[in-house]
Design brief:
- The complex is a heterodimer of chains A (about 120) and B (about 450).
- Chain A is built from four helices and no strands.
- With about 120 residues, chain A is mainly alpha-helical.
- The radius of gyration of chain A is 19 Å and the shape is flat.
- The termini of chain A are far apart.
- The chains are: A mainly alpha (about 120), B alpha+beta (about 450).
- At the A-B interface, helix 2, helix 3 and helix 4 of A face helix 9 of B.
- Chain A: One of its GO terms (cellular component) is oligosaccharyltransferase complex.
- Chain A: It is found in: Endoplasmic reticulum membrane.
Chain lengths: ~120, ~450
């Protein structure tokens, strides 16, 4: 009785999440896809380091930081661009995107330097 | 007219100065001045063949009675002699300022010693020998007796005169001519501590010999010294290259036994002349450093392709190492040829151990790669061969790891990280395009 209740609860939860997510705007979904891509690449690198060892450590850090930094910048873009967010109501989305581009430039400069 | 004459005289006087420096020195290891202490001045004539052979090889012998009060080996802190021969077995105390400590200090400072004991050896001689690693039989009346290896003789029938031919196998110590005739020996035997690695048996007794008092009945207990454990003549080479010879028989050095014919019991060979003269002469050549003295010079190392010695190496460098080893021939330094000199590249344990190859002229060289470990290493050459002075050389050199710009430009193991970073850049461009042009 309890088990079928929990499994049906899980199913119901999944369904509600999926339908709620489907309701988000398209441009936000594009940003989410980009974030997932970045995180997956980071996880692959960490798994590789666990197998092969941490030489050269600076390259590993640079690779992981590029993925994580990209993800962080994309997240902050998503926050600023989301119309449902009361905090950034007055911020034009173009301004948010321009900040995003500049920060990415700086990030990639640092990454290329530290990559060795 | 007087001035040039005076200058000529002065020049002559100056040319005598090198003669004053003719003593033992590192460049000429053969000893020069030897003090001979005798019990009895008649030994000078009864052992004259031995002394004249030494004199003919250029040694200055200074004969003194063992209790002569004027004996002094040291004056103002400097040793006046390079070698000491003690042919005074029954002396209880030396005259002058010499005692057991004095003799041991003499040896400890690198000088050579020949000690001959006898059936009536005093405690002094026994103590000196014990300090050198040789233990004479504790029974003061015991001599070496051998009933199957004695010298056949018309006069002596108690088998105390033995014919020994169990020599140490070493061309350096005994010369390269084989000693054909046995050596006649009459005296006391000694044993060596097996844990002592510096003392060697130059002449061993045969397995049928034993140490006992020939005039008393054999006790029920077996003798404490017997068989090949008895050494008749032993040599010691100390770590500072001092050489000591300890013989249990003074008669072995005498003219009578030098000239005597010898026939070993049980053997049909009759030799006109015993092996004593050859044995003693060759052994004394070794003792007084006319043979078997090595020196190593010019320990050099450098990177392959360079000629200067660097102050530091890097890991995985290729380097060359060379050393020159010479042997004293009695009158000059000749190249020492050997196939088994090795060098170690050592830090707590040898990371590299290589046998050096030689060019026949005394130069030993090899090349190897510095190991993949950094730290402070030493080039170590430890060469210890029977009969030769030991060489113990070391030179310290630090080894550093790679500098950050000495790695390969693109490291293969880091390719996934390079790929990830570039893919992030590409992703950024594609994302911006897609985001901006998305309706």
């Amino acid at each position: 009785m309890g088990k079928s209740a929990t499994t049906s609860d899980v199913h119901a939860l999944f369904h509600s999440l999926r339908s709620a997510y489907a309701a988000t705007a398209n441009h936000l979904k594009i940003i989410d896809l980009y974030i997932v891509f970045a995180i997956v690449t980071a996880v692959i690198q960490v798994a590789y380091m666990a197998i092969v060892g941490s030489f050269p450590f600076n390259s590993f850090l640079s690779g992981v930081l590029s993925c994580v930094g990209t993800a962080v910048l994309a997240v902050s873009l998503r926050i600023q661009v989301n119309k449902d967010n009361k905090e950034f109501k007055d911020l034009p989305p173009e301004r948010a995107f321009a900040d995003f581009v500049l920060c990415n430039l700086v990030l990639h400069l640092v990454i290329m330097n530290f990559l060795g | 007219m007087a001035a040039p004459k005076f200058a000529f005289l002065l020049l002559n006087l100056i040319s005598i100065l090198p003669l004053l420096v003719s003593s033992f020195s590192v460049d000429r290891p053969t000893d020069r001045r030897i003090l001979v202490l005798l019990d009895d001045l008649s030994l000078k004539s009864s052992h004259s063949l031995f002394f004249s052979s030494l004199k003919s090889r250029g040694f200055d012998l200074d004969f003194k009675l063992a209790d002569d009060p004027a004996i002094a080996v040291k004056r103002y802190g400097q040793y006046m002699y390079d070698g000491l021969i003690l042919l005074s077995p029954s002396t209880e105390r030396f005259g002058g300022s010499l005692d057991v400590e004095g003799v041991l200090d003499f040896v400890d400072s690198g000088h050579d010693l020949i000690v001959a004991a006898d059936a009536n050896a005093s405690d002094l001689i026994r103590n000196i020998a014990a300090e050198c690693g040789v233990d004479f039989d504790e029974d003061p009346s015991a001599v070496v007796v051998d009933h199957s290896s004695y010298a056949v003789s018309e006069t002596e029938g108690d088998h105390t005169l033995i014919a020994a031919d169990d020599f140490i196998q070493s061309d350096v110590i005994l010369g390269n001519k084989k000693i054909e005739a046995p050596v006649l020996f009459k005296g006391i035997g000694h044993s060596l501590n097996p844990a002592n690695s510096m003392v060697l048996k130059a002449l061993s007794a045969s397995p049928s010999s034993y140490s006992t008092n020939p005039s008393s009945k054999l006790s029920s207990q077996p003798p404490s010294l017997y068989g090949t454990a008895i050494s008749l003549v032993s040599v010691v080479q100390a770590r500072n290259a001092a050489r000591i010879m300890i013989s249990g028989s003074l008669d072995m050095f005498s003219n009578r036994l030098f000239r005597a014919g010898v026939q070993k019991s049980g053997s049909l060979n009759k030799y006109e002349k015993s092996g004593n003269e050859q044995f003693i002469t060759e052994l004394s050549k070794w003792i007084f450093h006319e043979r078997g003295h090595l020196k190593a010079v010019n320990l050099r190392h450098n990177k392959v392709g360079e000629s200067e010695e660097p102050s530091m190496y890097r890991i995985n460098d290729d380097l060359e190492f060379s050393v020159e080893i010479f042997e004293w021939s009695g009158s000059s330094w000749v190249p020492h040829v050997s196939k088994d000199v090795q060098v170690q590249f050592y830090m707590m344990s040898p990371y590299v151990l290589k046998t050096l190859s030689t060019n026949g002229k005394g130069l030993y060289h090899t090349s190897f790669k510095v190991p993949d470990v950094y730290g402070v290493f030493q080039f170590k050459v430890e060469y210890q061969k029977l009969g030769y002075t030991s060489l113990s050389l070391s030179k310290q050199i630090p080894v550093r790891p790679f500098k950050h710009n000495e790695y390969e430009r693109f490291i293969t193991t880091a390719f996934p990280y390079y790929g990830a970073s570039f893919s992030m850049m590409a992703g950024f461009f594609i994302f911006s395009g897609v985001y901006l042009y998305n309706k």
